[in-house]
Amino acid sequence: MSIDPSPTQPIASASQWRLMWMRFLRHRLAVVSAVVLILFYLVTLLGEVVAPYGANERNTRYIHGPPQRLHFFDADGGFHLRPFVYGYTLTIDDDTWRRMYEDETSEMYPIGFLVHGPEYRFWGLFKWDVHLFGVPEGAYIHLFGTDKLGRDLFSRIIYGGRISLTIGLVGVVLTFILGILLGGIAGYFAGLVDGIIQRLIEVIQCIPQLPLWMTLSAALPPDWSGIKVYFGITVILSFLGWTGLARVVRGKFLSLRQEDFVVAARLVGASQGRIIFRHMLPSFLSHIITAATMAVPGMILGETALSFLGIGLRPPIVSWGVLLQQAQNYQAVSMTPWLLIPAVAVILVVLTFNLVGDGLRDAADPYHQ
């Protein structure tokens, strides 16, 4: 008689990473958030294709225009299988000089997919003119409206995401290196070295972050190019963000340095570098990855705050913080509320990163059920 294998047998023989992946998949909200994040990064990666216009392309007929609505039914009630948008008629209020736009039902602009449009250089490598969607030549489509110069806000959010999303990843890589290096040194050697590094961490954490960000950002040379400012801001955010990860690594190293497998490696003559990188770090690498994931939203919010205040990235660079500079006063928000749409993108990305981090943290916990 054959005996069926125990249903727990695959789990019992699974590796640590396999178990972590299985636990993560049970966290439905984290999985959905991970899919949303992947979509965000794919859209920004293919920004030139997804965006119907260039980041600085202007439509002078549609200054401070509100978002255009998608329609399937025309003014007479007829159904259209292909979605379309109406053109707008501009009137100016005689008392407030406010620009008023109304649907011009005689101008119907059907939306096509994978259409030819304005030419661009994809990632600066080759010329192409195919866009994910668009309208016939001479028409226009602005799903999120336009800004004070008539630039398409939807396209600028996509291009801005390329900066705001990557600055979080680049910053976390630097934070990852500093946190593991200094935290590992403090935890492994302990004693005087640990005391010095802990005092340094406490000094950095005692300084209010926003004023320190402002001071360091203002110290950047005003004649720097956009790419230099980008990396300068990234280094500043990383310099202030490594302390939390360093303390996590230090605590893990202090608890592991006297474990049997570490003592055994030391007795057989393994070098300190091998003990640290081949034995100690892999034992809690999943926790480090979780901590790094949770740090990305802080990097994105830091760049957004600095750029919003005008001391971070500056035009013509496009980031979500730069886009929000136009919504700094009550008049702009009350008359053109669609200028706050970049804030919605920031909220969604930060929220999804936090949810993914929660899922990874639960998955990395061996006692989590």
Number of strands: 5
How much is the average pLDDT?
Answer: 83
Low-confidence parts: 1-9
Main sheet characteristics: 3 strands, antiparallel
Categorize the overall geometry.
elongated
- Order of strands, widest sheet: 1-2-3
Please bin the fraction of helical residues.
55-70%
Number of helices: 14
Structural class by helix and strand composition: alpha+beta
N-to-C SSE string, H for helix and E for strand: HHHHEEEEEHHHHHHHHHH
Rg result: 26 Å
Distance between the termini: 34 Å
Strand content: 5-15%
Please, could you describe this protein's structure?
The chain has 369 residues and is an alpha+beta fold. Strands 1-2-3 form a three-stranded antiparallel sheet, with no helix packed on it. A two-stranded antiparallel ribbon has the order 4-5. 30% of the residues are buried. The N terminus is likely disordered.
Key terms:
5 strands; disordered N terminus; single chain; alpha+beta; 369 residues; three-stranded antiparallel β-sheet; two-stranded antiparallel ribbon
Topology:
Layout: H1 9-12, H2 16-26, H3 28-45, H4 47-50, E1 71-73, E2 79-92, E3 99-110, E4 112-122, E5 126-134, H5 153-189, H6 191-206, H7 209-218, H8 226-256, H9 260-267, H10 272-280, H11 285-308, H12 320-324, H13 330-335, H14 341-364
Antiparallel strand pairs: 1-2, 2-3, 4-5
Please provide a brief summary of the model:
With 369 residues, the protein is of the alpha+beta class. It has 14 helices and five strands.
